[in-house]
């Protein structure tokens, strides 16, 4: 029989037990994670005592009392050895021993938890500790709080090697996307969630948020002027939205009080998370005790009940639970799968409600505290909501920078997760701000403390929304903003949360004045917030005062628009019951204000369509009656008048003089325009003689006409005519011909005759289809995205590569006969553009076709797609074909094909955003971006020869919004906002072309004169465009520009400066003529104005040269498109003209500066790949420069013999007219060239 040695020496046994405690610490507890084994270890330790009592009593014949005493002594000795070893190791030998922090915190996490028992304000505790100990604070034996922005990318960034801490296991067996610690498991589960948060789904959700926002505003209207608990009302709103989108049914908290206990239940379920966060082993133990943690248990029961109800009733509209239930149905339906379903539902309920509600509360706390921010926000929103809109569209959201700034500033100062996300450092450790943090350390970045740190933000404690758009220098470290988490674990619902908040904020600010309630200053609100991992905000008393803005409601029963003029006085007179308004049982606002019986439920009138205040309406009517007293202002008459105005007709006013309210500046402007000055201006057009002997028209605003004026003067002075006496007919090139006589001559030799037949016919068989080797195709696509896509967007990378992969896969399996002609036309056009100049490169030797071959193939496919079956892909194909033709010097053909693409887009309604309603959100975004690419391409193809654009903005009524970049990323090579900025600049350029060139020539009443004020207005518009660029697009030379974006940003600024040159180059030409004439026709104030604009033109040209030099040095130039070469060509002519101007004045230094700029242009062009237009233009410009030098030498000789009269030849060109340029004071142009 088993027996123990007798007698046992108690001191020896206690020492042995203590040694066991030390050994278990050194060989077990300090290695790995054991928090999930906490319940088992605690159970074993507790069971060990009665087991020892039994053994000692049974086998040592000790009394029960003695056995119990000995057992407790041995258990205590073990515990003493274990905890003594822990304290000794943590205090003297732990890797974190060099980090400062509270003394007791280094021995146990219980110290940290104890500090949170009373107030649960961990965010405030962390701020105090960092203020006392610095950026690194040891808050536990293996815990470190790091309050420095350098830590954010290392701990939370996408490249971080840190993992989630053991705390995330606290809810087991319940698991969800947030608590998943394994990155692979997290990624797989996130894919299920990503379907629910796709762009198309978000678009549908936004339409369901709006009615709830409207209902919130209705309730605030009813409670107008009375103190309300804003905290609770924002919770009701957020929970109603969450219920609608997550569970498929709103909780209806805004309307009735039945479910208003749910937010309290959520807070009860989260109440002890903050206290238990430092000790992750405690949560599994306490969760097993039936009398503890009732709040979390009750909340889980609520979640289970919601899952069951949603399964039973189903849903007619998509919601988040639909995606989770689909994943559940496709699973094995094990207990683990059910825990995922419960856990993710809990995550959606918490993340979709309370965090949004708390942020909204903080936003309106700051708006009530700083009324000036409300004023700025309204000023920003008014033009974006023009036309009575009550919600921002995608374009408006992008422009509402102050709204975005307010939300970001509130999130910075009061993040929903104030104490941060605990992470564990990798085994090799990390180095943050020069300090090494050992591996296995639990690191937390206190987000609230970091958001208020001067190391991350300037004036960090102040509420300054402008720091997020107009004052970026106030953000010292952009990585410091991590309110939504970061990296792979970033909050997946952040986009939906922002949409939800913006929707409600816009409505409230537009219709209510918000202020603190009497006795409320917000101090108790800010100091009383609790930290339960998510923040719990206390009561905030606010007053929402209805601004009395009328609302136009659509009567859904009769389809009638009703205008309501709401005011507190009207509601008091009609005694609208707050309860009836809340419950939707009383009269609608219109019937209530009119005092009539309402036969339609108020719920039917809830959705507003247009809004106008009564005061605005009355003022507008008074103005109309003042200026049109004899006209009956009914709807039919006003519509007819508007139609006449839009068509350019003049609506006569009975009153010929303005009222006393007219600004005084109007009179002074009129007076200024009586002053007349002469300036030389190009004629409406001229004729170009091409290589085929055909005459082609060239518009006045074409650079060709300006270049001809410069070169013709030099050539005639040197005695070399052009072979024609008609100054209106000119040959575009001296050393070569345009267009090439055949397609193959644009690239060189090697054009296969077989492909000529293909071009001529419409064959679509195996013999007419060719694909280069896959690696060569990849090279072409890389060139396309790097050099072309940065200017013209046609495909997203994933879209193009997917199509190419599918095409090559079909080629290997079933052949290419099934490929659409549109796609093949697009693909061959890309190959035609990007294969130019590759024949001499070894890595492209295996391609059997040349650029000319691909162009002919693209043209053959293009002929097949112009019919009634055309779609957006056809528009894309023709646009790419036009670009390929343009790049290959077929200017007229490119112009014609572009016109076909535009008219095809018209037929599809792309310009009016009409035919896109049956498309998903991503498809709509792609088509929007394609339309604006075509818009840009149409303008650039047309302006080369001064042709009219196919898109005439004021005639076709373009209504297509810009592509939503939150839905469709523009791609790696294109920065956000780039296309919108290019479109805005192009619209300005088109307007300037009409104002400065076309309008004066077409209006015989004005005798081809324009005021100087029109020129300065154009320059002012350009200056405003530059000032309004997003911060990331404002500095082309900054190292902060991402390398993939450098070409696009440089091109954007080059467009700007070339537009400045375009507006002002006639003045430079006039100044040159005046300087070369014996008698200067300019004098006095006129000469001063001409000189200012001429100097500004040269300054813009110099800035453009700086950008080109930067692009050359950074290898950003491209010969695949015309833009780069054309800019250089225009600048060469400008500096040729400037050299002659300065030489005639005897200004040697200025002439040398112009010569240096000219040399830079020529060297830049010579450094480019000699293909396409670059190959054509280089010898041409060399000849022009040589001709200019010869003319200069000849003029110098002639001037010594018979006097200088070279200016006569410029005057004889017949390309100018007399214009009246009235500018008033000479403008200042320094702001237009700021960097």
TrEMBL record:
Its main location: membrane. GO terms for biological process: DNA-templated transcription; verruculogen biosynthetic process. This is Cytochrome P450. It comes from the Eukaryota. It comes from Echria macrotheca. The keyword Nucleus applies. It is found in: Membrane. Residues 894-967 form the Xylanolytic transcriptional activator regulatory domain. Its cofactor is heme. Keywords: Heme, Iron, Membrane, Metal-binding, Monooxygenase, Nucleus, Oxidoreductase, Transmembrane, Transmembrane helix. The keyword Protease does not apply. InterPro entries: Cyt_P450, Cyt_P450_E_grp-I, Cyt_P450_sf, Cytochrome_P450_monoxygenase, XnlR_reg_dom. Belongs to the cytochrome P450 family. Pfam families: Fungal_trans (PF04082), p450 (PF00067). GO terms for molecular function: DNA binding; heme binding; iron ion binding; monooxygenase activity; oxidoreductase activity, acting on paired donors, with incorporation or reduction of molecular oxygen; zinc ion binding. GO terms for cellular component: membrane. Gene3D superfamilies: Cytochrome P450. The chain crosses the membrane at residues 12-30, 42-59, 71-89. Heme binds at residue 491.
């Amino acid at each position: 029989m088993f027996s123990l040695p007798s007698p046992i020496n108690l001191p020896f046994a206690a020492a042995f037990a203590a040694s066991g405690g030390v050994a278990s610490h050194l060989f077990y507890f300090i290695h790995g994670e054991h928090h999930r084994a906490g319940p088992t270890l605690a159970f074993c330790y507790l069971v060990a005592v009665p087991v020892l009592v039994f053994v000692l009593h049974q086998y040592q014949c000790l009394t029960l009392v003695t056995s119990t005493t000995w057992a407790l002594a041995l258990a205590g000795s073990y515990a003493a050895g274990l905890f003594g070893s822990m304290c000794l190791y943590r205090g003297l030998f732990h890797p974190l021993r060099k980090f400062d922090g509270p003394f007791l915190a280094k021995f146990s996490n219980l110290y940290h938890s104890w500090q949170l028992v009373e107030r649960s304000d961990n965010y405030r505790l962390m701020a105090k500790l960092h203020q006392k100990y610095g950026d690194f604070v040891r808050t536990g034996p293996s815990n470190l709080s790091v309050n420095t922005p350098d830590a954010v990318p290392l701990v939370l960034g996408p490249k971080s090697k840190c993992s989630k801490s053991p705390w995330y296991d606290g809810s087991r067996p319940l698991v969800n996307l947030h608590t998943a610690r394994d990155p692979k498991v997290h990624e797989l589960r996130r894919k299920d969630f990503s379907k629910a948060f796709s762009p198309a789904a978000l678009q549908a959700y936004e339409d369901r948020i709006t009615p709830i926002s409207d209902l919130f505003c209705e309730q605030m209207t009813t409670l107008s002027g009375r103190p309300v608990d804003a905290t609770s009302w924002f919770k009701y709103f957020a929970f109603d939205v969450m219920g609608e989108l997550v569970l498929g049914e709103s909780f209806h908290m805004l309307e009735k009080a039945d479910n208003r206990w749910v937010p309290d239940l959520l807070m009860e379920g989260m109440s002890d998370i903050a206290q238990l966060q430092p000790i992750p082993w405690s949560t599994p133990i306490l969760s097993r005790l039936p009398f503890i943690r009732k709040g979390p248990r009750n909340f889980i029961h609520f979640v289970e009940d919601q899952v069951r109800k949603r399964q039973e009733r189903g849903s007619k509209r998509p919601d988040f639970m639909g995606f989770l239930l689909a994943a559940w149905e496709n699973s094995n339906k094990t207990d683990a799968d059910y825990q995922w379903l419960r856990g993710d539902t809990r995550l959606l309920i918490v993340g979709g409600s309370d965090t949004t509600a708390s942020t909204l509360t903080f936003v309106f706390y700051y708006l009530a505290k700083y009324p000036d921010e409300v004023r700025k926000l309204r000023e920003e929103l008014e033009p974006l909501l023009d036309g009575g809109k009550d919600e921002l569209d995608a374009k408006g959201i992008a422009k509402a920078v102050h709204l975005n700034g307010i939300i970001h500033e509130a999130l910075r100062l009061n993040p929903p997760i104030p104490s941060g996300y605990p992470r564990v450092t990798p085994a090799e450790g990390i180095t943050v701000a020069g300090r090494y943090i050992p591996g296995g350390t639990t690191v937390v970045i206190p987000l609230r403390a970091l958001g208020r740190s001067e190391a991350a933000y300037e004036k960090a404690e102040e509420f300054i929304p402008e720091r997020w758009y107009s004052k970026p220098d106030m953000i010292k470290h952009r990585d410091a903003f991590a309110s939504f988490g970061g990296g792979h674990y970033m909050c997946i619902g952040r986009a939906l949360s922002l949409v939800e908040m913006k929707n409600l904020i816009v409505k409230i600010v537009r219709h209510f004045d918000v202020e603190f309630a009497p006795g409320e200053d917000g101090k108790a609100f800010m100091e009383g917030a609790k930290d339960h991992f998510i923040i719990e905000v206390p009561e905030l008393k606010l007053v929402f005062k209805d601004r009395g803005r009328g609302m136009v409601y659509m009567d859904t029963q009769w389809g009638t628009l009703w205008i309501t003029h709401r005011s507190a006085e009207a509601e008091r007179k009609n005694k609208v019951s707050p309860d009836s308004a809340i419950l939707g049982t009383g009269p609608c606002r219109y019937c209530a204000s009119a005092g009539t019986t309402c036969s339609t439920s108020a719920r039917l009138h809830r959705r507003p369509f247009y809004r106008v205040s009564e005061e605005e309406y009355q003022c507008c009517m008074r103005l109309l009656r003042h200026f049109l007293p004899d006209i009956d202002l009914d709807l039919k008459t006003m519509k007819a008048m508007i139609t006449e105005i839009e068509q350019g007709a003049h609506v006569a006013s009975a009153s010929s003089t303005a009222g006393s309210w007219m600004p005084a500046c109007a009179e002074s402007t009129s007076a200024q325009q009586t002053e007349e000055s002469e300036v030389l201006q190009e004629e409406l057009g001229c004729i170009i003689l091409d290589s085929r002997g055909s005459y082609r028209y060239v518009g006045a605003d074409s650079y060709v006409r300006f270049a001809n004026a410069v070169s013709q003067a030099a050539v005639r002075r040197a005695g070399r005519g052009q072979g024609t006496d008609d100054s209106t007919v000119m040959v575009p090139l001296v050393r070569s011909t345009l267009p090439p006589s055949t397609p193959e001559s644009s690239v060189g030799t090697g054009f296969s005759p077989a492909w000529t037949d293909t071009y001529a016919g419409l064959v679509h068989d195996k013999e007419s289809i060719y694909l280069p080797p896959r690696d060569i195709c990849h090279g072409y696509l890389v060139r396309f995205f790097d050099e072309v896509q940065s200017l013209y967007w046609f495909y997203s990378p994933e879209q193009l590569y997917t199509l190419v992969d599918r095409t090559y896969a079909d080629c290997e399996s079933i052949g290419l006969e099934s490929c659409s002609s549109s796609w093949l036309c697009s693909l061959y056009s890309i190959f035609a553009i990007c294969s130019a100049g590759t024949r001499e490169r070894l890595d492209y030797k295996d391609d059997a076709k040349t650029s000319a071959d691909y162009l002919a193939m693209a043209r053959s496919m293009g002929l097949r797609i112009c019919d009634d079956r055309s779609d957006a892909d056809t528009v894309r194909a023709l646009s790419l074909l036009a670009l390929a033709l343009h790049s290959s010097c077929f200017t007229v053909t490119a112009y014609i094909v572009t016109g076909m693409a535009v008219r095809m887009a018209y037929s599809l309604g792309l310009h009016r955003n009409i035919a896109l309603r049956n498309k998903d959100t991503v498809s709509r975004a792609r088509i929007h971006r394609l339309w604006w690419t075509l818009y840009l391409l149409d303008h650039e193809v047309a302006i080369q020869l001064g042709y009219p654009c196919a898109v005439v903005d004021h005639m076709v009524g373009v209504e297509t919004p810009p592509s939503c970049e939150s839905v469709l990323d523009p791609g790696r090579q294109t920065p956000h906002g780039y296309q919108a900025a290019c479109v805005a600049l192009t619209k300005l350029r088109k307007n300037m072309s009409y104002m400065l060139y076309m309008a004066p020539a077409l209006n015989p009443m004005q005798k081809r004169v324009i005021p100087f004020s029109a020129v300065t207005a154009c320059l002012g518009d350009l200056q405003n465009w530059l000032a309004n660029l997003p911060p990331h697009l404002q500095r082309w030379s900054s190292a902060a520009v991402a390398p993939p974006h450098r070409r696009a940003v440089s091109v954007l600024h080059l467009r700007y400066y070339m537009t400045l040159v375009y507006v002002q180059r006639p003045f430079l030409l006039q100044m040159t003529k005046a300087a070369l004439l014996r008698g200067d026709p300019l004098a006095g104030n006129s000469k001063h104005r001409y000189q200012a604009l001429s100097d500004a033109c040269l300054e813009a040209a110099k800035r453009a040269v700086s950008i080109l030099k930067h692009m050359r040095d950074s290898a950003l130039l491209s010969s695949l498109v015309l833009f780069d070469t054309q800019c250089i060509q225009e600048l060469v002519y400008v500096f040729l003209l400037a050299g002659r101007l300065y030489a005639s004045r005897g200004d040697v230094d200025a002439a040398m500066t112009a010569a240096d700029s000219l040399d830079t242009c020529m060297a830049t062009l010579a450094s480019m790949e000699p293909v396409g237009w670059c190959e054509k233009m280089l010898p041409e410009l060399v000849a022009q420069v040589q001709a200019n030098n010869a003319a200069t030498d000849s003029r110098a000789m002639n001037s010594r013999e018979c006097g200088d009269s070279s200016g006569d030849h410029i005057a004889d060109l017949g390309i100018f007219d007399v214009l009246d340029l009235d500018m008033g004071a000479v403008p200042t142009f320094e702001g237009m060239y700021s960097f």
